[in-house]
Amino acid sequence: MRIAIMTGGHSLERELSFRSGTEAEWAIKELGHDCKTFDVGSAFVHDLTAYAPDVAFCALLGAPGENGELQGLLELLEIPYTHSGTLATALTMDKTKSKAVLSESNLPVPKGKLVHRQDIEAEHQMDAPYVIKPNDNGSSLGGLYLVENLDNPPPKIKENGRDIFMIEEYVPGRELTVSVLGDRPLAASQFEFEGVNDYVTKYHHASENHTVPAQLPCDVETRLMDLALATHRALGCRGLTRTDFRWDEARGPDGLYILELNSQPGFRRNSYSGLHAKHCGIDFPQLCDWLIQDASLMR
Fold first, then answer.
1. What is the pTM assigned to this prediction?
2. Is 82 exposed, middle or buried (0-12, 13-18, 19+ CB in 10 A)?
């Protein structure tokens, strides 16, 4: 098969996308396929159509791969592709809209709202503790703040380029993440850190604070896996996804809250999803092959 590896992009996660693309290229070559890498952050459509791939392998984070733009283009070009479709990808990129869908499906999400940066800096917008974060960025990029009490003034937003942020209640306890492949929850990771899981914690100290599988009571693990699959389905996702959670341990299974779903999680052998698959006996080339075989249009 001829596989086009779609990577790069023009978001803050561009460099992380290239890492996923490099790993995907290695795995696809291990499977014996012909492949070519395309940077979707530059002019690529002419070269892509000339290559005439059988499948487009989506190995990128952020726009335009995680907001539906790339999927819409691939539909127009009639090139089957991996991961979720146009609508699901666009929906999951918008944290507020996806949380609204999950809430309508009676799935637990923290309370939150969109607020202009001027209002955030002028006065506290909800009871502490609360978190300030972008509505549409991943990898904890674009600004992430934890406000632990109301005695201090609200934070000043350092990041430029956006005016609207999500304000969300902070759920105490552990952060967890679960990968789903098709209709199968794979495994859970747990993180050990103080405060919020920012970019440095995720990408520079992951091996120090990250455990697979998560060490959880049986009833909590069952509930967690059920919620991950329910989230995947409620948002109309396909292929591989990863859902992030907070768990308030004092409340047992009822203390699990969904933070967000990643429709194209980082795709590397040592990424969370790569490790979840490995825990289930699926090596990285096998994971890649599953996604290629699952590729289609009208997802």
1. 0.91
2. buried
Distances in Å between the Cα of 136 and the Cα atoms of 129, 142, 166, 169 are 21, 9, 9, 17
- At 225 the three-state DSSP class reads helix
The number of domains in the chain is 3
- 149: containing domain: 112-169
Q: Which two tokens stand for residue 83?
A: 């991961």
Could you give the CA distance from residue 162 to residue 277 in angstroms, rounded to a whole number? 36
Nearest-angstrom CA–CA distance, 65 and 77? 15
| C-alpha torsion angle, residues 84, 88, 255, 189 (rounded to 10) | 20
* 184-191 and 145-147 beta bridge pairing: unpaired
Task: Encode the chain (299 residues) as per-residue pLDDT tens digits.
Answer: 999 999 998 888 888 899 999 999 999 999 999 999 999 988 999 999 999 999 999 999 888 989 999 999 999 999 999 999 999 999 999 999 999 999 999 999 999 999 999 999 999 999 999 999 999 865 445 678 999 999 999 999 988 878 999 999 999 999 999 999 999 999 999 987 565 554 444 444 455 678 999 999 999 999 999 999 999 999 999 999 999 999 999 999 999 999 999 999 999 999 999 999 999 999 999 999 999 999 999 99
What DSSP state is assigned to residue 81? B
What would the two tokens of residue 19 be? 């890492």
Q: Are residues 75 and 207 in the same domain?
A: no
Total residues found in the chain within this entry: 299
Q: Which two tokens stand for residue 253?
A: 């299974």
What totals of helices (H) and strands (E) does the chain contain, helices first? 11, 12
Quick check: is 298 in a domain? no
Same domain, 9 and 102: no
Q: Kindly tell me the sign of the dihedral angle through the C-alpha atoms of 66, 69, 70, 71.
A: positive
Identify whether the C-beta of residue 152 lies closer than 8 Å to the C-beta of residue 146. no
The answer on 177 and 69 residing in a single domain is: no
Residues 78 and 225 in one domain: no
